[in-house]
Amino acid sequence: MANIVEVRNLKLGEGIPKICVPLVGKTNEEILEEAKFLKNVKFDLIEWRVDHYENVEDLEKVKEIVKALREEVGETVILFTFRSKKEGGELEVSDEYYAQLNKTVAETKLVDLVDVELFTGDEIVKDIVETAHNNGVKVVMSNHDFFKTPAKEEIISRLCKMQDLGADLPKIAVMPNTSEDVVTLLAATEEMSTKHANRPIITMSMGGLGLVSRLSGETFGSALTFGAAKAASAPGQISVDKLATILEVMHESK
Ligand SMILES: O=C1C[C@@](O)(C(=O)O)C[C@@H](O)[C@@H]1O
């Protein structure tokens, strides 16, 4: 397995894949209520999907709610994600604002990880990565295909490019149309994690057909998996309770 990445108390790339719960509230109240709800849920880290937030285009309001969220969740690891519409998110903003948003939030040092979409363009990606790293924030670099599963070589090449651009955790989510597509994603994960990666990677095949990929990270080499608490943020996510139980069963059987 690739090297381990440590974020606060979490060691990604070792043992049971870590469980990430997305927060998809629209208002300050909804976001903080979702965060409170997590007090009784077993998981490892939170993803705040800021593209769902009604004030996402107001940097001051984003900074205020990040602060409130950090106060609410204490030491829990926070991943900050603006998912663009073209990659399955709620809205599109200019590349300039996308960079400004991610850099401003990284500079607060209130989040532990930021998600940077690979296809934003190399220069912008490098700029965000540099600011994040200068502020002690790690980068999940991502790519999503909500319609199909690219060939194994293409999946590996995108993950390698993320690694070259400085991603701490390269991530890809693809949609299967056949069970063979699921096998393609799993084979790409296995090859990337054993032959090319020198850091943990995150992969998933979405939808019901791809569910096995969200459960078998320890077998094939994916370090993190997303599970739903109050609401899912992508097709195929199951409840975090069921996910935790299945991951434990997989771990014990190894
Ligand atoms: O990139 C991902 C993965 C994801 O799309 C999934 O399929 O679980 C869910 C998103 O919230 C997250 O940003």
UniProtKB/TrEMBL annotation:
Pathway: Metabolic intermediate biosynthesis; chorismate biosynthesis; chorismate from D-erythrose 4-phosphate and phosphoenolpyruvate: step 3/7. It holds the Pfam family DHquinase_I. PROSITE patterns: DEHYDROQUINASE_I (PS01028). Its EC number is 4.2.1.10. The keyword Lyase applies. It is an enzyme of class 4 (lyase). The active site is at H144, K171. It catalyses: 3-dehydroquinate = 3-dehydroshikimate + H2O. It comes from the Bacteria. GO terms for molecular function: 3-dehydroquinate dehydratase activity. 3-dehydroquinate binds at E47, W48, R49, R83, R214, S233, Q237. InterPro entries: 3-dehydroquinate_DH_AS (IPR018508), Aldolase_TIM (IPR013785), DHquinase_I (IPR001381), Type-I_3-dehydroquinase (IPR050146). Coiled coil: none annotated. Keywords: Amino-acid biosynthesis, Aromatic amino acid biosynthesis, Lyase, Schiff base. Involved in the third step of the chorismate pathway, which leads to the biosynthesis of aromatic amino acids. Catalyzes the cis-dehydration of 3-dehydroquinate (DHQ) and introduces the first double bond of the aromatic ring to yield 3-dehydroshikimate. PANTHER family: 3-DEHYDROQUINATE DEHYDRATASE (PTHR43699:SF1). Homodimer. Belongs to the type-I 3-dehydroquinase family. This is 3-dehydroquinate dehydratase. It comes from Intestinibacter bartlettii. The gene is aroD.
